[in-house]
Amino acid sequence: MNFDLAMTDELLATTRAVRKGLDLDRPVPREVILERLALAVQAPTATNSQTWRWIVVDDAGKRKALAELYRSAGGAYFAHAKDAAIKRGDAQTGRVYDSATWLAENLEKVPVFVIACVEGRPPADAPALMLASLYASIYPAVWSFQLALRARGLGSTLTTLHLMREQEAARLLGLPDTVMQAALLPVGYTRRSDFKRAARPPLDTITHWNGW
């Protein structure tokens, strides 16, 4: 198969964290989510364990409860972080935190939450190898899901703030103790499609060959 490399590169380079650009009024049908998850689970997992699990929340009451946990876990942090970024002259990060503040304030209005989970819970003293394998079994699928959304007119952002209240969220969702939440992705159609590449540091400042 010959891929259109220009389109592939554009998809990879312009899949942004979408917050303010989400359409809060347009419903997202369940089949739309399932079609994208079918692509997401093609992602590899450590030792072919296939331990990704997904909780899709479209119930308004549960979205509201999760949003309240999210805000209580540190919603005020964003305003502080925004001010700090602006004071040090980092306008791009300031805009990110402004957008994150908006999302925290409006989270329950986003049509669907997709909570990425993984089967297995590491012990408190888990070695780095175990942790790396566990997260490597879910985050590739999360990114594939986000790419599939972007290619079809939807957007999301990977959030983890609610994990500060993970046990309460688990009780709300009826999760067994053996299932660990890894991220919450608010999902909706986007109100625009012309996302641009973000400013990033020059590669020669962050890339090292054959050692540091």
Structural commentary:
- This protein is an alpha+beta fold and 212 residues long.
- The chain contains eight helices and four strands.
- It has a four-stranded antiparallel sheet.
- α2 (30-40) packs across α7 (139-151) and α3 runs antiparallel to α8 (166-173).
Keywords:
alpha+beta; NADH Oxidase; 212 residues; single chain
CATH fold assignment of the domain at 17-58 and 111-192: NADH Oxidase
Structural class: alpha+beta
Number of strands: 4
Helix run count: 8
Distance between the termini: 37 Å
Shape annotation: globular
CATH-level-4 superfamily name of the domain at 17-58 and 111-192? NADH Oxidase
Uncertain segments are none
Task: Give the amount of beta strand, in percent.
Answer: 5-15%
Q: Strand order within the widest sheet?
A: 1-2-4-3
The biggest sheet amounts to: 4 strands, antiparallel
**What is the ordering of alpha helices and beta strands?**
HHEHHHEHHEHE
What CATH architecture of the domain at 17-58 and 111-192 do you see?
Answer: 3-Layer(aba) Sandwich
Q: Over the alpha carbons, how many angstroms does the gyration radius reach?
A: 18 Å
Helicity range: 40-55%
Chain oligomer state: single chain
Which CATH class of the domain at 17-58 and 111-192 is shown?
Answer: Alpha Beta
What number is the mean pLDDT? Answer: 93
